[in-house]
Structures are given as C-alpha cells and as structure tokens.
Amino acid sequence: MYAELKRLSERPEVFSVYTAETLWTDPHLAKRMLQTHLSQETALASRPIKAIDQVVDWIDRSFELDGKSVCDLGCGPGLYTNRYAGRGAIVQGLDFSRSSIDYARTHAPSHGGSVTYRVADYLKDPLPEGQDLVTLIYCDLCPLSPNQRQALLAKILRALAPGGRFVFDVFSLEAFERVNEGVSFARNLMNGFWSANDYFAFQHTFRYDQEAVSLDRFTVIEKDRTWDVYNWLQYFSRDEIRRALMQAGFGSIAFTEGFGVDRSDETTFGVIASA
After folding, report:
1. Which residues contact 166 (CB under 8 A, 6 or more apart)?
2. Domain containing 22: what range?
3. Which of the residues 206, 225, 262, 275 has an alpha carbon 20 to 30 A from that of 171?
4. Stated pTM of the model
5. Are residues 152 and 251 in the same domain?
6. Which tens digits make up the pLDDT trace of 8-31?
C-alpha cells in the first residue's frame, strides 16, 4: 500500500503517458463523456448551447459557410458540425468516439448543406483534402504533446485548400495561473463517472511551471483492477502559438478573444491561421 501511494504522489515526466483514447473508447466512459458533452449544467466537455451558437454565428460571419468545404476535427456529438451544415457548408466530422459519432449522425440536419461523419483518430488517420476551413474547437489542441501538436498542424496545413483557414482555440497562460496542485480521494469519485462498478479514486493535480502544463491524473481502483487516466493540458501565449504555426508552414495568423462569445475572463483565446 505504501509503495502504491508513493507512486501516486510522484510527479510524472511531462507528456510521458498518453491515455486520451480511453476516455472516448471505453464503453462506460464514452457514454459518460457523451452525457457531459450534451449537459447544459457543466462546461467540462463542451460549451453551453448558447455559446456554441455564438461561435458558429461568428464563424459564419467571418468565413461565409454556405457552400464551403469544412472539416471539424474532434467533432464529438456534432454540436458544431451539424450547425455548420445547417448554414449550408459541406462538412466532414472526425472523432474516435463511436458513440459520439452515432449521436451526431442521428441529429444531422435535414436541410442546408451536407455532413459526413467518420470514426477516426485525427492524429493517425488521413484528413480530407481541399478544405476551405478546418476547425478544432474547445481547446482540443491543448492535450497534445509538442510532437503530436506539430505533426497535427502539418496534417491540417496539407488538408487545407490554398487560402484555406484553420480556426481553433487554446487555453491561455492566465488560465494556467489558476491551476492549483492538490489531491482528492473519494469512493465513486465524480458520481460514478469512471466506472459502472463500485470503485475508489484519487485525483492528483500537478503543475509544470517551466512548460506551462498541467496534469490531472485519475487513479481508479476497482475490485479487479487499478488503472490511470492522464489529462494533460498545455497553456499558451500568443507568441508561442504564432511560432508553432509558422514552424508548421502557415501564413498569416490572427487572434480573437472569444469567437463572439460573451466572456468575463481571459482563460482562452481563438486563432485563425491561413494556408
């Protein structure tokens, strides 16, 4: 017991373990993640519907979605993707959660443009080419390691048509300043989120000040197994994002505070990068 508790208290090397796929492919967790995406009582997985509508309004005003080819990476249950199609875009949505893709397909709009969904891992699988717009919304770039991030940026650049735009958002350094290290422990932590079975769980939060990275590591202890989930988040300055995009080969780069969403803080910022 002491050795295991000691292991749990030790700080892992930054981005040394990557378990994101577990959240979206384990049957129980995939169901709970979908519920969290759709919930209007928490912003843990997705923005409230009002804010999503504001983001899509801003994107439509900025890029005129009607008739445009759009690829929505990490589309989840289609909260943005279906709205793009409703504005007349020709949309492809990619996500490696089959349950989220199934939900998105059943709620696709019957009017407007068209939408196609594919179960795929955008880090590994090919992206559609010739896209006028690629979106990666709600800070999905932030869980990626630097190597994963640069590889994905290169893939996105190849997927864009000449003059196409990549639109995404990231967590800011101001958000990192709000991260506090700590540990919590509970039976059935987060109201049974982690398993349909009875379990105990630890949540350890670590800060990596030099890298501006945080880690929430969840250790779930069930009767027959103990397993971990690592939630890494990278936080960025505008200069850091600009350097990463220029290194990947993007052209002009612009920033926006919130894609038209009413905000009372500076925890995220939006980025528009041109091919």
Report:
1. 133, 134, 135, 136, 156, 157, 160, 250, 271, 272, 273, 274, 275
2. 18-37+179-233
3. 275
4. 0.93
5. yes
6. 889 999 999 999 878 777 889 988
